[in-house]
Amino acid sequence: MTAENEPGQAHEREATTMTSTSQNAAGNGGPLDGAVVAVAGAAGPAGRATLLRLAEAGATVVAADADAERLASAVDAARFAHGGATVTGDTVDLLDVTATREWAARTEKEFGRVDGLVHLVGGWRGSSGFAETDLADWDALHALLVRTVQHTSLAFQGPLERSGHGRFLLVSAAGASKPTAGNAAYSAAKAAAEAWTLALGDAFRKAGGEAGPPAAAAILVVKALVNDQMRAERPKAKFAGFTDVTDLADAIAGTWYKPTEEVNGHRLWLTSQP
Predict the structure, then answer these.
(1) Which residues contact 199 (CB under 8 A, 6 or more apart)?
(2) Mean pLDDT of 179-185
(3) What pLDDT does residue 28 have?
């Protein structure tokens, strides 16, 4: 299981971006001050940026990844940048539904609440054309991009509803809405993950009735992600249309600054719509 948008092949990998509406700093009494937010796939560049941003906003951040060494580095970086912030790391196999449910239950029990689940688990496989598609790629992407969404959403639905202002946030790619011949498996997996997330949003809507949804499930759509390491490795590249991971992190935090009903069940486009 890989974290969102690792360096290399970024033009095809996990895509997510969004302009921030948040100007919050830690301890200012904003909606994330004291919130408890779980981040799945937290060890990659997007995960590191998200941990930093959430910690800055005053949240308690519960990070998970399958790579223990990289996760520890990301957690330490967030703690160091924001002294006093509570940032924890947990090695979790999100392909194991029981382990995922245990992570959700453990988080709620330890911290008393769960106000968010940010899904940053990613991966990409493609081919030179449609006819060359290897169905083994579908099997791998289904596990990474769909099954982990299913497991985390089922595990965290209850805690997020109990929060009263919970957020389930999926990072997706514009290609899910406009697939290309060489990205059939990837685009189909992303589209499936989006549909699943929107179904969770409908569950939140029904749970709230006339009072409005108690939590929101939303999709952040980008073309691709970029970070400082990628720019250093390819100084002449323009990365046109890419979203910086720090901007993605701002966008993630910004969803708590909007009314829940305005977030729930929506695709939040951080790039041009196809």
Answers:
(1) none
(2) 96
(3) 56
Whether 196 contacts 153, CB under 8 Å? yes
CA-to-CA distance for 108 and 237, rounded, in angstroms? 43
Q: Is the pLDDT of residue 27 over 90?
A: no
Does the structure show a pLDDT above 50 at 38?
yes
pLDDT of residue 1: 52
* Spatial CB neighbours of 259, under 8 Å, sequence gap ≥ 6: none
CA angle 45, 270, 266 (to 5 degrees): 110
Q: What's the CA gap between 175 and 197, in Å, rounded?
A: 17
Instruction: Give Rg (Cα) of the chain.
Output: 17
- DSSP letter at 125 equals -
Distance of CA 88 to the CA centre of its chain: 17
Contacts of 134 (CB under 8 A, 6+ apart): 125, 127, 185
Q: Tell me how far apart the alpha carbons of residues 33 and 45 are, in angstroms, rounded to a whole number.
A: 23
Whole-model pTM: value is 0.89
Structure tokens at 26: 């830690």
What order do you get walking across the sheet with 166-173 strand by strand? Answer: 87-91, 60-65, 36-40, 116-119, 166-173, 215-222, 267-269
Bridge partners, 65 (sequence order): 91
Instruction: Write down the residue that tokens 């290897």 correspond to.
Output: 134
For 232-256, the pLDDT digits (tens) are 999 999 998 898 999 999 999 999 9
Across the range 72-92, mean pLDDT stands at 94
